[in-house]
Amino acid sequence: MAEPDQAYWRGLAIGKIGAECTDLGKVGVVTGHFMFCSEEEDTGSLVYTEKDMQTFSQILYLDFPAKVVAQHHQLDTKRIRPSFSANHLHRWQQTEITQLRDLCQIHGVLFTLISLDQTERVSALLCDFQQHNEEYNTSCATNMLDKALLLDHPHPLETVLVLDADKTLTVEDTGSLFWTKYTVVKGRGMPTQNTI
């Protein structure tokens, strides 16, 4: 297919996968490529779509040593593949990591590098993604905040550090959330705010 047709069908496929995962309340695992880069190319060809970045919540990048990837590549007798040097594969990996990290930051997608000695983490992370959704994480954070601001705590807080994490850790306005919570707690007898 021509590149525009490829992008259309890739976008359609990831949209269908995303909708199905949402409808079923399941975690979808999509394996694939971000870019292809022949030995002769300097920049490579991107094969991700904007729909990918709108659908994915996490990207786990298998950051294996280029020499290991080259060796696996050479030992694969099931497919005929072009030859790649370890140096080329390393440059390709670094380009992918840099570009993916930037795209993930822009689109609010969590990006994690998984090294060869950490592959057992993948299944644990997938289970974690299923259980720790935004609602669950918000509930945990709220419970911790409630415990920290309890008036009958044996060691009442004198100072609270508030981080404004809008669009980084949450989609909500964290400053408003904090002051709303603070006002509720303050109404129960917490000292008034002196400075902002």
Strand content: 5-15%
First and last CA, distance = 58 Å
- Can you tell me the overall shape? elongated
CATH architecture level-2 label of the largest domain: 3-Layer(aba) Sandwich
Overall pLDDT metric: 82
Note poorly predicted spans.
189-196
Task: Going across the biggest sheet, name each strand in turn.
Answer: 1-2
Structure description:
- This protein has 196 residues and is mainly α.
- It folds into two domains: 3-131, Rossmann fold; 134-186, no CATH class.
- Helices cover 51% and strands 7% of the residues.
- InterPro entries: P-loop_NTPase.
Question: What's the topology here?
Answer:
Blueprint: H1 3-24, E1 35-36, E2 45-46, H2 50-55, E3 58-62, H3 66-75, H4 86-107, E4 110-114, H5 121-131, H6 134-148, H7 174-186
Parallel strand pairs: 3-4
Antiparallel strand pairs: 1-2
InterPro entries: P-loop_NTPase
Defining key terms:
7 helices, 196 residues, single chain, disordered C terminus, Rossmann fold, two-stranded antiparallel sheet, 51% helix, P-loop_NTPase, elongated, mainly alpha
Can you summarize this structure?
With 196 residues, this protein is mainly α. The protein has helices at residues 3-24, 50-55, 66-75, 86-107, 121-131, 134-148, 174-186; strands at residues 35-36, 45-46, 58-62, 110-114.
